[in-house]
Amino acid sequence: MERKRWTVLGIVAWIALGGAACGDSGGGPDDGGADSADAPGDVPPEDAADAGPDGEPDAEADAPDAADAADDAGREDAAFDAPDWGLPCPDPEAEFDPTDPGVHMFFTIGDTVMMGQSIALAAGGFLPAAREDFRPPDPPPHIPLDGCIVGSGGTHVRECTTNEECAPEQQCVPETDASGNPIPDTGVCQTPREPIDIGPFTCTGFSGGDQTFQYNPGQNGAYTSTADGTLPPGALAYDTTYACTGDAAGTSGVGRYRLELYVPQRLAITSPEPVMGPGGFPVLDVVTTEELALEWTGGDGVSELSVNLTGRDGGISCRVVDDGAFTIPAEMVASAGLGGFAFVNILEVRRERTGVVCGEGITDGEINCTEALLLNVRPVTP
After folding, report:
1. 299 occurs within a structural domain
2. Residue 298 located in a structural domain
3. Pick from 86, 137, 184, 338: most CB atoms within 10 A?
4. What does DSSP say about strands 269-271 and 275-276: parallel, antiparallel, or unpaired?
């Protein structure tokens, strides 16, 4: 559960539902483009070192090595990895100050590939920082690394049952699923707040040229570069650094700010190779009684992927090192309950990358890119 992420519009909630994936949004049937835990940060240190105090982004950047990729560039490590941009970065050890909360910023790049088609988006926003933004990140799923479990492995939280158990400015509300429906027997303390408009910002790194994002009242105050946040085919790029800069000139207490995110080579399944199914979309043939050896591209050997295999009669969840290969044991393949037509069986591979947010007046921030590849699975009986 990502309690810190504030979804202010339908397309950002869609990320949680379908998964999102950074990359060339022109994926076709042969594309294997494909995330959830806090993934290691990927801002190349060379690029960060070149950035001057003027906050202007360096459009070129090299890929980080494995040691750099191991460092999480999220809020919890910002004080240790703070880039030399001439800007203050959120203090990972700071506590919430109700008298001077500052501003929370988020930005998400995503692309979901499903049935051979890709839907790409980019959206962000600004909110008054809240007490819940300063909570420690959620722990990893209860799944052993490079292992699988039967079921989803997800956990839900009941930290409150009434408003009296929360801080004065918070309310006790149930967690919600990807469709926005309340989850029974859950409760978290959240602060009612509305997105704020502090003026536009511009991002480099997109293959179609710079994108300018601004407050969009038609999307509940999210920042988008298009009417609904989705991007045209080919707008996203891989093996590149996305860099965004803006200057709110004191609006809501925010001045200059900058965020960066390195996106590695596109995630693609290379083995077993998908084949074209009778419905005109790629499918994966999987023998229901044998192990499933997966291979993919774009891994750094340090970060994590989630791999989920869901069938007509069950499902399994795996947490794996993003090193390019993983074998799902035969007993786990059998537990996935594959059966019937390919349409009802799904292999989902998700990768997430996080970056760095710094700025005057920004006390908490996150930038991430999530890739999700969903392949229909055609069960094969021996």
Report:
1. no
2. no
3. 338
4. unpaired
Amino acid of residue 67: A
User: What is the amino acid identity at position 107?
Assistant: F
283-321: string of b/e by CB count within 10 Å (b at 16+)? bbebebeeebebebbbbbebbbbbbbbbbeeebbbbbbb
Q: Is residue 274 part of a domain?
A: no
Query: Domain residues for 223?
Result: 10-267+348-379
Contact indicator for 118, 251 with CB cutoff of 8 Å: no
End-to-end CA distance of the chain: 38
Look at residue 138 and tell me if it is in a domain.
yes
- For tokens 């203050």, the residue is 88
**Average pLDDT, integer, range 223-236:** 94
**Rounded Cα gap, residues 110 and 288, in angstroms:** 32
The pLDDT value given to residue 381? 87
At position 191, the amino acid (one-letter code) is T
Q: How far is CA 89 from the centre of its chain?
A: 21
Nearest to 354 by CA among 224, 259, 268: 259
Q: Which of 79, 78, 87 is nearest to 360 (CA)?
A: 87
Amino acid at 297: T
The whole-number average pLDDT for the span 75-100 is 78
| Higher-pLDDT residue of 252, 74 | 252
Residue 303 pLDDT more than 70?
Answer: yes
- Structure token pair of residue 194: 């509305």
Decide if 366 contacts 106 (C-beta within 8 A).
yes
Domain count, the chain: 1
Rg (C-alpha) for the chain, rounded Å, is 21
Which residues neighbour 26 within 8 Å (Cβ) at sequence distance 6 or greater? Answer: 118, 233, 234
Higher local confidence (pLDDT), 140 or 213: 213
Q: How far apart are CA 220 and CA 195, in angstroms?
A: 8
